[in-house]
Fold:
Amino acid sequence: AQRVTQPEKLLSVFKGAPVELKCNYSYSGSPELFWYVQYSRQRLQLLLRHISRESIKGFTADLNKGETSFHLKKPFAQEEDSAMYYCALGTGGSYIPTFGRGTSLIVHP
Amino acid sequence: DAGVIQSPRHEVTEMGQEVTLRCKPISGHDYLFWYRQTMMRGLELLIYFNNNVPIDDSGMPEDRFSAKMPNASFSTLKIQPSEPRDSAVYFCASSSLTTGKAFFGQGTRLTVV
Structure:
């Protein structure tokens, strides 16, 4: 069975500090990994996906199959990055996302 | 496209009452998902449909929960009877294989008192 683990419920940093939100997954097949973000009072929206290998809003994430991880990183956090971040796993060739429990990121001024 | 549309945005009801949540997916999407979001459990997949057919409802917590998708543009999630522990934000999302990602509605915040 597939599973996504986000070990931190809350991550609190100061503006300008580096950020790493951890995500580990469990899946025997070939995974598709995503990061979703939910800003206060807004809907979840896709931040990035590993296939695209893109950087969105300064965030990057690299799929490490050896460690089964897909950590989200940003070198310099901004206050507007404060939000709830969900790691998601898509499996089986069709898109049925399994989400982690989420990490609340708070960036202090 | 206005995106995934959910109604109502907020619902407050008394324990024992029936609650119906509604979702209009994005036109052309053939997958529809219902999620429940709570502080304790995060986002839980309740059920998903493919081409209006329920594929996996193993996440539905109890028989009090039921979901239907009578056509490609409409789905409902019903709780009967509702209980205080059902209080949560319920999200609907839709996707297709071509998009490769899920689009979420703004959610319905349900409070059962």
